[in-house]
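Lay summary. Proteins are chains of building blocks that fold into shapes, and those shapes determine what they do. In this project we predict the shape from the chain. Here is one chain we studied, written as its sequence of building blocks.
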Amino acid sequence: MSTTAEEFLVKSDEKAFDMPHRKTINHNIGKYNVAVERGLSKFVNLEASKKKAHVIKWRVMENLDKFLPEFESNFQKRGGKVIWANDVEEAQKEILNIIQKRGGKTVIKSKSMTTEEIHLNEFLEKNDIESLESDLGEYIVQLLGQKPYHIVTPAMHLSKQEIAQLFHERFGTPVEATPEQLTQKARELLREKYLRADIGISGGNFLIADTGSIALTENEGNARLCTTFPKVHIAIVGIEKIIPSIADLDLYWPLLASHGTGQNLTVYNTILSGPRQADETDGPEEMYVILLDNGRTNLLAQKEQRQALYCIRCGACLNACPVYKNIGGHTYNTTYSGPIGSIITPHFKGMKEFKHLSYASSLCGKCTEVCPVKIDIHKMLLLNRRDAASKHENTKTEDIGWGLWKKGMSKRSLMDMLSGNIKNFFLKTFFKKSWGKYRAMPEIAPKSFAKQWEESKKSPES
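And here is the predicted shape, written in a compact code that computers can read:
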């Protein structure tokens, strides 16, 4: 078992029985469920919308080599610059080159999971560049020195009392401050940062091929400030975020909003098509889009599993997953947690080190049921398990164990060879630890049902 997998098991064991954590998550996800149910009810035919979204994404992934150059060409026509990054190191290097070329020392960021994926804040800090998160949830976890807990709501694991305590310790606000007061304080602290930042960095919810634009969706307005005030705007976007036409936003924006937060549409929706033009009054002097691969083409090469790249990062599968709701986002120790993280991370970062995530599932299918683009998530988990086994990414002990189990299960006489007492001895001796300290081991009957049935047929009384 890999070190990452061992850490995952230890953290899962701790977090699953952390009752205050469970209370906070159940409360926050409970509010989400109510909002989403209301949001989804506004669709005349939700199933048809999801099917259409799935088909569009299927067409994109089958023709990614055509749509990405189309986006690049159209974006460059408006004065934008496109950079292709194969991995984390390339993306970091290109961003640093842009910042240093402009003599930048301060960066203001909007919420972006791709910047988390390339560990941008830590990298810039090592190079003496201040990088500040402007999304309220991201700002809170940055103050705590933590990673985002959830791909949509980064501070979901914190109660309002814990956030009030944090602001009290850091900024002297009243310990009983309300969420509105805390938000106002954050706004006061961040507003000047937009004005003096040298570089603005964002992600991108969608890349629009036919107009060469990036589409941003948010609820706070901080992304607009990050992409408008600084003289240079850098957008870091995964290559899978492409959609064919600006008209497709009519479908994807409501799907993302309703499944992500239960809204009909998020408060701020922005389309950016390059740097400030001659006849425009605001916007950056330079705009770059960094197209990030970082393992996505590995997943694209898997014909059965490439549909995982259809994901629009709504977070619905996390909120539906019984495993996520018990062990929490940080336990996964990956940029993308929950069911979607479990199916893409082994392809992004290596099956050997992260195959265990595909086993962290009850296979209840709820994740597939709630997905707005109809990704067959629980099937993808099984396919990852299959690939790990077929490539012998499992440990030798696992291979031997499952080999013996298969042999025993395939022949009745072998199953009945050992008595129930001997089987119970093996279970308690070799499987007790892996079964978990909070669960009692099952008791196997002294005789199998087949033996009892055979004996009953021979009995004169029968």
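What the prediction tells us: The radius of gyration is 26 Å.
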